[in-house]
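User: For a reading group we're discussing how well predicted structures match intuition. Take HNH endonuclease 5 domain-containing protein. Before you show the prediction, I'll give you the sequence so everyone sees exactly what went in.
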Amino acid sequence: MKIFKVGESQKAACNHCQSFENATFQLRDVPFSDGRGIVKNVLVGVCDKCNSVTVLPHQSTPAVKRQYEAKRKPVEGRLPAHLIDILNLATLEIGTTTDFVPSMMKYYIHTLSEDEKSAKKIANYLQSDLATGKSEKRLSLKGRKIFEDIEHLKSLTHIENTTDLLKGIILKINDDVLVKKRLKPITNLRNIMAAVA
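Assistant: Thanks. Here is the predicted 3D structure of HNH endonuclease 5 domain-containing protein, as structure tokens, for the group to look at:
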């Protein structure tokens, strides 16, 4: 892979000019192709003839991806305060801080979306008394795969409401980490914590 520097140039197909033209690499603010925002200050090839962006070099892909993902709407739910307390206690149990709550939730969401048998049991947790209560706290999760995993989990569990799904997952965390203290999920969470700490 060639790494381009600002000021270098190469021939590129220009859609505006409908021909191959010389393109010079510059830092530019470029709109996303879906029109949902702008990638700021990214290296692109700019047509010397018409001044339009013709090339996005491979080296700029991570910056574009990062900014695109930052624009994604988070998965959110309003939950009873005691469910947030369960998440906080679970982080304490695995030896980390409450900053780890989003990572722990994303781990469970992804793992359950890959395990149909376990996912189908999530609805059972919603029958628990712990699933009820006035929803006074907000849980917000962002991530590259979170939407796909949540949608897949909804289809596996037949729980259409995101907040109810989050409640079920939190109660599974409670069962695994605080009540039954299952070794496998606790070990996996500790490994993730060590990797992201």
